Amino acid sequence: MKVDLDAMSIEELAALRENATAKLAEKVASRQKELEAELEKLSAYGKPRKAPAPKAVKDAKDPVAKAA
Question: Residues 33-60: pLDDT tens digits?
Fold first, then answer.
C-alpha cells in the first residue's frame, strides 16, 4: 500500500501518525513478550559463570612481578 503523504491533510497525517504509533507499541509489546519467554527458556540452563578475576601480585620481590 503506497500512501501519498503530500496529498493528505494535516488531520489525516496526524491520524496516520497516531495509528502508526499505536501499531508500533503493539509490535514492541508482542516482541518483548516473545523475548521474555525465550529468556525464561534459556534460564533453565542456569546463569553463565564469570571467569575468575586474575589474582593481584602481592609480592613485589617476585621476579615475574618485576618483569611485568
Answer: 999 999 999 988 876 666 677 776 665 5
Phi, psi of 60 (to 5 degrees): -75, -15
Contact by Cβ (8 Å): 43, 35? no
Question: What residue ranges do the domains of the chain occupy?
Answer: 1-47
CA distance 19 to 1: 15
What is the pTM for the complete model shown? 0.56
Residue type, 37: A
Q: Taking CA 1 as the corner, what is the angle to CA 29 and CA 25, rounded to the nearest 5 degrees?
A: 10
